[in-house]
């Protein structure tokens, strides 16, 4: 049986790659950080499929590879080649952003880990690997929200949306991995179409305004 410590390690690794995808200013490198983040997500799904004996989770892992490891990173890398290499100036400076991310990682992770019985009062959720994964998944979701609030670059906005969605996948996986319906819900909640539309708009923003500032989106309707 897979060592449960591996799940804890994967959870820590997915948090680190989330921060890298948010903070790396080079858009192409940020896209690669998101790719690694998605690979770790797929590894967690495969681990749960093996541990729980739910073979339907392997189908979820396959769709995860296709959408989150191949299609979305390919779109991010492709569109990052059409715009300046570095992201548009964030709303929050680098130092403040790092401090905020540190607070998010420590506070949210610790709070949700220690108060797990309040929002997931099950015996399974009390086990260390599941408790850590749930705390990590909520933290990833919050990191996605922080990205949307603190970044103006459209490609970073896309990464923020993708991180939020990956956080939802992890929450779903940790809470009900034994249900076959979990696989179907995980598959249908992919945001490939949203990512494509946002990146397509980012190319239009840069072509028309010469910038990837998402604040200029409102001017496209004029």
Structure description:
76% of the residues lie in helices and 0% in strands. By secondary structure, it is an all-alpha fold. It has one domain (4-221). Helix 2 (27-52) runs parallel beside helix 7 and helix 7 packs antiparallel against helix 9. The chain is globular and about 55 Å long. The model has no long low-confidence stretch (mean pLDDT 80).
Total domain modules: 1
Rg value: 18 Å
Principal-axis shape: globular
The quaternary organization reads as single chain
The largest sheet is:
none
Rounded to the nearest angstrom, the distance between the terminal CA atoms is: 59 Å
Q: Which structural class best describes the helix and strand composition?
A: mainly alpha
Work out the helix count.
Answer: 9
Low-confidence stretches: none
Helicity level: over 70%
Please report the total strand number as a whole number. Answer: 0
Mean pLDDT level? 80
Beta-strand residue percentage: under 5%
N-to-C order of helices and strands:
HHHHHHHHH
